[in-house]
Amino acid sequence: MSQLRLLPSRLGVQAARLLAAHDVPVFGWRSRSSGPPATFPSSKGGGGSSYMEEMYFAWLENPQSVHKSWDSFFREASEEAFSGSAQPRPPSVVHESRSAVSSRTKTSKLVEDHLAVQSLIRAYQIRGHHVAQLDPLGILDADLDSFVPSDLITTIDKLAFYDLQEADLDKEFQLPTTTFIGGSENTLSLREIIRRLENTYCQHIGLEFMFINDVEQCQWIRQKFETPGVMQFSSEEKRTLLARLVRSMRFEDFLARKWSSEKRFGLEGCEVMIPALKTIIDKSSEMGIENVILGMPHRAPGMSSTTWACTMRGSTASPTGTSLCRWLPTPPTWRQWTLWCRGRQRQSSSTVEMPRARSTGAGWATWAGARSPSWLTPALQVMSILVHGDAAFAGQGVVYETFHLSDLPSYTTNGTVHVVVNNQIGFTTDPRMARSSPYPTDVARVVNAPIFHVNADDPEAVIYVCSVAAEWRNTFNKDVVVDLVCYRRRGHNEMDEPMFTQPLMYKQIHRQVPVLKKYADKLIAEGTVTLQEFEEEIAKYDRICEEAYGRSKDKKILHIKHWLDSPWPGFFNVDGEPKSMTCPATGIPEDMLTHIGSVASSVPLEDFKIHTGLSRILRGRADMTKNRTVDWALAEYMAFGSLLKEGIHVRLSGQDVERGTFSHRHHVLHDQEVDRRTCVPMNHLWPDQAPYTVCNSSLSEYGVLGFELGYAMASPNALVLWEAQFGDFHNTAQCIIDQFISTGQAKWVRHNGIVLLLPHGMEGMGPEHSSARPERFLQMSNDDSDAYPAFTKDFEVSQLYDCNWIVVNCSTPANYFHVLRRQILLPFRKPLIIFTPKSLLRHPEAKSSFDQMVSGTSFQRVIPEDGAAARAPEQVQRLIFCTGKVYYDLVKERSSQDLEEKVAITRLEQISPFPFDLIKQEAEKYPGAELAWCQEEHKNMGYYDYISPRFMTILRRARPIWYVGRDPAAAPATGNRNTHLVSLKKFLDTAFNLQAFEGKTF
User: Fold this and answer.
1) Are residues 845 and 878 in the same domain?
2) pLDDT digit string (tens) for 782-820?
């Protein structure tokens, strides 16, 4: 019996399906005449045949478990497979008559031919896209390979691959249940089968979907494309398509006529993209989508021609995005569009734009009962459409990172439609030199997203593909990719000369008839429109453009609020400015602190078994609450909890944030006896609280930080935080920081309140994971080091409003508590960068009293000296300024040298914007003291280069501020523990050597 296992399971499976189609009774199989199974027996594999394999293996164990016809077939086939050729079965096994042998031979040939046809159909489904006519220019294979797969019948001689002959072309074959090419017919001739397969898979549409491991989804796509006659358009639909092509192409012509020397990054060569996007939106609207978020490259669509004319004239700033309503006739309703123009970092905004479909709609749907803003409908149906370039889609790693988030529970947006403008070139780089994959879209295969390649010079094929893509997304809530294979009529921009590097391609492009003319000629020839109607449509839109151009001459500068894709209704006043320039105190009542501390130290669920080590942590929190003190983790808990009570959604994301990298947070408790049973006590604080979302992210910084940034854009009433596992992990997300966070308001016209938590500190643990690179953030801060400020009544809040972001390094849990709450209580939103501690999480001195957090207390931008030195300031010989963890090293060293009365230590908690007013007060308080800045980072890193000129400005250069710290270095920290301790002792000695700066000049 062991020899029988050599029988290929594929043969058994296909034969089973074939004999069943001929109503041969088979164990465990329904005949075709009785219809397909009610449900697919397996969700694995595109072929749906695993249960037939089970029948074969059941026969191996017990031949009597199957019908006698199968017993005979399996025995004969196994003997043939073992011997390598057909042989009669031994007489000892079975005795047959000559007529029975002849009948069996005919049946075997029939089986083999039907199996061959099924293999042929599957070959087209899997590999037909490789020979599809996708390139409008006809000079390049979209998959970069001219090889024709040997199992596709492109010539008669290839019939031999399946052991078929030309005479078989007119034979009728039973169609398997895994194809819809027959429509209502169960049988077709082989010639007709090949013709229909070629029409479906080898014309202007190339389908990649057979890698999807869900049978239902594969069958859905087959039915959409294989069913005869599905791609039929009415005369009205064709006229609408033609009108949209006219607008797309004539708009480009309008811009070229008026601004011929400007870079426009036009659509010429892919004009069909505008009708394509409109089709996706229309179809999605029919299926219930109410809000569309569209990420575009280079420039934002959706604005009026007048707006564009104003922009091109320079009478207003370049638009980066817009939020608007559009009337859609089917169904008749208004729909909200949010459109965002992508920056130069190509794919970066993909990860930023996509999550807004979650934060705008699905992310809020989880708390319909919470006090959400009236303008935000919790059940809003939102989808995102992202437009990509082919070279960037293949070459930018963030594309994979973004796809990788698509099905994660805390990051899914229920599917995104990705439209790739595949002009088959990356700036000047040939795609054969730019990627190793056959298609630029191959990265989408990792998440089982179907990929629809389509020739962009066939508008009807494009529109049908886009309609199916929209239906797929709204049926399965999964990503889908539309690959518009097109060309670039001009260079990378209108001023570029492409003939330098792609001479043959552009010779063909210069001869290429524009898609509008080709489609218009087609409709005129078939009588759908007349030449006069076509010319009138062109003239009509040309008049619209010319009228808009005329209005733009007198158009006043458009208010920037028209371009905000997150307008936040009700948050700002009618002019788009903050309603006030004050910030209330950030403290909360003591009973609220006590209540939050009580929940934080308990397990709200019954019969929930927690780890014994966690029990000790919870007891420690209970003791701190009883003693009216908090550590870092409990202060954070109280900040989050108090905001939840006020209806503020809190979302904390990053690697290991549920527990905390340093095992200090424990916001998600895990039952030690029940798999996947968890408890989030933060969500059990108040009866009507907003939700708290804490989610461990994938091992991605670039993609995840971009996601959280996009999430934070949807509403000002959410505290969205991203925590790096270690501070230096933000270096792999630097593009998001540089491109969007630092420049958010100045470049993108957006307020954003995202918070970055970056663990930072030199603790002798090596150059990795030590420094969050504060110097980078400070270098990108926009406050002027040379401008002496005017200290008005609202100086603190005004300074925050004018800055591009806020950079803090808190030294106490209470100040951390306050700065988180201030982030929401401010009348505007700015990104907040927090250098969080590591060793201070458990430092016995790094604790705060409830007295520093109760009502009436606020964030301290500067914490002044409050010891013996402050009581006798005239006797102080040195005033040391510092920030963060090094304060505790300085205090310890000062105590050991008994210098409490001679040396004062002041902490900068908010570094940027620089607290000029409070620094001035501190310096004037100690008129006879030398000033020193002490930091644990190397001199060319950290804060010194930022704070030094600002000290000089506020002190009118009357007093120098000396540097105390480590010498300049290339690496942020040493890898040797002893070297770390030696350098630490060295700069601490310098800090308290009162003669260290004598005789030196500044």
Assistant:
1) no
2) 999 999 999 998 999 999 999 999 999 999 999 999 999
